[in-house]
Amino acid sequence: MKIAIISDIHGNYEALLKVDEDIQKAQVDKIICLGDFINYGPQPEEVSRYLIENKIPCVMGNHENAILHKEALARFNPDAILSIEITRGLISEETLEYIANLPVNLIMDNMLFVHGAPPDSISTYIYTFEDENLLKIFEELEQQFAFIGHTHDTNSCCYDGQDFEFKMLYPGINQINPKMKHIINVGSVGQPRDGNSDAKYVIFDDAEFTVDLRYVKYDIDKTAKLIAERNFPKYNAKRLYQNWLEILG
To answer: Regarding beta strands 111-114 and 145-148, do their DSSP bridges make them parallel or antiparallel, or are they unpaired?
Structure first.
């Protein structure tokens, strides 16, 4: 089975449309979304309608949780809080109801899908775990493959029964060890933070044990213009162009 796994669309409908075109060409068997499909970007309703109308299974992200619960929103920075307030005015009651009924994770065969960290964390960044905690997660993980988003990075962590190792995912086909457990971060469709502004997603082939990391170009200017027109914080548009490798250098 070939599964397209998308995450962190963040209201970027232009990026999502191009990713959808790429997915259709790849002729996958299923699409799954790992949450954070709203906020930051200017078209949260359009993105939500895409998921609803195409009946794409989706889990709860921390941004969906924040639009439902004030205590979760309080942990956000000021720009993110303002963005949530604007987003709330752009989505329908049907979308809000859809968000309220999202599960915290999905399990399919030997695969777990969750936004933050296995088995059911919405908001935990996996890189914040101490080694012993990450080992415990792997030991208690009942599935062989776990797919996550949240950090907007593209990498994987594999476990051989004793130790774990983080590995980068590279554009194109990444072969993975079928004898190990894996936690795979699929990157971000709408707001990549890996030094490249293309939309990112993966296609997992559970027969070939491959992760195909796809880079998809889209009209960033169009999204950025709409961000400004809908009065989102300027930073939301600016970081669509940011090259983090240049900033760190």
So the answer is: parallel
